[in-house]
Amino acid sequence: xxxxxxxxxxxQDRQGRLLVVSPNECLLPGFEGYDCVHLKYQFVQGPSPxxxxxxxxxxxxxxxxxxxxxxxHCHALEGGYQQQALNRLFSGLLLRYRPDAIVIVGxxxxxxxxxxxxxxxxxxxxxxxxxxxxxxxxxxxxxTSCWVRDALSRAVLVSSLVxxxxxxxxxxxxxxxxxxxxxxxxxxxxxxxxxxxHNSFDYALYEFCQxxxxxxxxxxxxxxxxxxxxxxxxxxxxxxxxxxxxxxxQQIGAIGVERDPAIAEYGRGMGLDIITExxxxxxxxxxxxxxxxxxxxxxxxxxxxxxxxxxxxxxxxLQDNGVLVLVFPDPESIRSQLLGFWRDPEHVRxxxxxxxxxxxxxxxxxxxxxxxxxxxxxxxPFEVSPEPLSQIEPMTLPVIDTDATYGVWDKLMRRLGLVSxxxxxxxxxxxRDTQQVxxxxxxxxxxxxxxxxxxxxxxxxVNKTWAWSDNVVLKLxxxxx
Length: 481
Prior knowledge:
The chain has 17 helices and 15 strands. By secondary structure, it is of the alpha/beta class. The protein folds into three domains: about 15-205, Rossmann fold (3-Layer(aba) Sandwich); about 210-380 and about 470-480, Vaccinia Virus protein VP39 (Rossmann fold); about 405-465, no CATH class.
């Protein structure tokens, strides 16, 4: 048999590659013929080693087995975006292994969203419900219910390892095809054979492979305070809708605009009001005015002439006394310049906050608050080589008193336990000389310590430039006409 024929037979025998997500490595019956990659996860109390909600315990704990640690707060099936700890790690494995299908065992806050990510990236996913799925039918808030229903509907198959009740059947009805575990492998094989693979890069891949939703929730949480009292907020370029969700949880009415249909649909699956449209086109054809507009990490995607046009359109869509909040990378942030900005394939250039404020002022917008002003950027000059420290002279103590320096009479008195006046005066002088030597040495040490402290303070001042915030937040108010 030729090598080509042998390869064809191997390909025919291969049922497909699976990415299995479960708390353990056990393989479900019927999937033994698949090439399986496992994403195991365990809940831990923390702290996180890198500030994220999930991280790799090791790259591979076995052949094709990856172990992730997830913070315990991501266990509960509530909270939406702040629970989506595994999305980033999961997306990375999808790109690395390019599985034909995904099997997700158990539903928790950190795993519920994975079927939605799989759907977004064009890979069929099967959900295997175990006892953890009982939480699906607890008293869920509206936002969580929307999320749950969308996650279940995005799965091509749903199977149950526990005995189903009528309540289960009615709750899952119409969301996706429900099959017995025994036929799950064969049913999934049908979806694999009919699946068209899409290997090209698009922005949605970056959105979910490089960004961590729980971290973004923490980063954007503080910005909601600028919209207290607002009733109609526009989030322009809202992406997956994280800020919209934060506003919703504070009962602030808001809609979002997102140009990418896949990402917009993903956000709508969380129960958010998102319009799929180009942001500039939306502003040009929109007549409604808003009392608050949030535009985060958008201007750096545009050339300057378009930024000018954007701010003009934003001012036009803002009610008198309305609030516009712009968030964008700080060009004076070393971390942003070196570590973050160029990870995004669509970033065009940095914009200095003073430039943006000048453009905004020309459109009748006054800066009410600036994170840039709240954290002054003090630039501290420093030498390439440190100033030399003062040298400490070697310490030489006076010669210790010995019998060789005295005569017979002094030696005899010493044997009798007595000290002559001459020797007593000599010992006093030696003690004073020793004290002076020690004092001089201590002063030299103190001088050197002071120089080290000053050098450290200058170095720390220089080091503070690394602590400047990565982003600028500008709160602008539209002047009343």
